[in-house]
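Regression report. Comparing outputs from two consecutive submissions.

Submission 1:
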Amino acid sequence: MSRGVPVLNLQAQYTGLREAIHAAAERVFARQEFILGEEVEALEEALAKWLKISHVIACASGTDALRLALMALDIGPGDEVITTPFSFFATASAIALSGARPVFADIEAASFNLNPAEMEARIGPRTRAIMPVHLYGRPASMGAIRAIAERHHLPVIEDAAQAIGATYGGQYAGTLGTLGCFSFYPTKNLGGAGDGGMVTTGDSALAARLRRLRAHGAIQPYIHAELGLNSRLDALQAAVLRAKLPHLQSWNADRRDKAAAYSELFLAAGLTGHVALPGEPADGVHAWHQYVIRLPRRDAARQFLAARGIQTQVYYPMPLHLQPALAYLGHQAGEFPESERASREVLALPLYPELPREHQLQVVQAISDFVRVA
């Protein structure tokens, strides 16, 4: 029996990359160029090639990526943006901070992602964009979402913060809409040593504007054409990400293997009548940022596992429409039942590329024991 099962172990990744990361950091210190510059440009070029997209604009965080995308589309007061109520807070807060109104549409029960039919029902005269989220690394139903968006002449901003490497119809998440937004938060599939993010687009005019907007709207030093953000990626973060990027494909493959192993273990234990398992989409490839099950008695199960030294996490215990900061929107419990049910049932299990099989066996055995005694 191990001392414990962590939900994530970043040390395991760092151990294998220590020399490469230290060399990357030393390269930055030797240059004494810490904001944007050659290191960031090289990262942008590498990611554009990796994702097969024309333009990558690095910025200070995934949240800023969302804010910059909205600004680039001139979305502001009086506008509405349709999104999911089941996501990290930044999805909705970026819309609200732009001055626009987040308009929520419920999720699909199986995917946890935006339900296209619910989304279309909420399109109105003030709708200016649609913001689907590829939650937990599973691509949203982008075929239906794009078809609806095109019918209504609306841009699509993909929140792909958790989905680098996921694909839909053979195309990478974050390259399927008008703009894609990514996060390099340390726990992501491709994570830095601090905050970082990027926006992707195939539109050259939008790319040029995004580069201005991330630097206070400057068109040349000290000359500002418009109001923007101070959202420039640190060169140190870019250097760390460049050291990690060559490993991303194999890390994502390892995540898929671990996810498949979990599902096989749950099936072998006869738990599918008690635990709802995640799955691969028929039309895409999951990035497996998280392996998230559903348990009707989630909180009790989490306590049971914690008593055995097994860490888990809940993403997310309160849907966005019920968040205190968004109370001004006037939503009530019961409006988005699938999102509310998910918030009561979801449980993220330990998942990372180096996860030992022994730990997976312990997790499944503990859940089996919980089901037996609950």
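Submission 2:
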Amino acid sequence: MRKALIYFKKDLAGVLTEIEDGYSFQYEGNYLAMPNAEPISLTMPLSSLPYKSKVLFPFFDGLIPEGWLLDVAIRNTNISILDRMSLLFLCCKDCIGAVSVVSLNEENYE
């Protein structure tokens, strides 16, 4: 079970978890309590209930680069293009935009 901390504008917003039958994302209670808390995506409004999906949420999948940039990112790794969670860890720690993804696992994706 792989996990990632999801940051929104430097604030810990929630945790993305790869579960047995897909994926789960849950906002952190401290983030929800912030007066200026914003959803990480319009498709994932602020909620104390976890979001679940059988595939990687389209919002997170959309953070992964495409085309030649994806080719450059995986050229020197043994990550499959189908392993979306590993690609998220590899490419989205410091991606463009307000959201960043930090792996909580022991693997080094750099």
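Expected: both submissions complete independently.
Actual: both completed, but the second showed a warning that disappeared on reload.
Relevant detail on submission 2: The chain has four helices and five strands.
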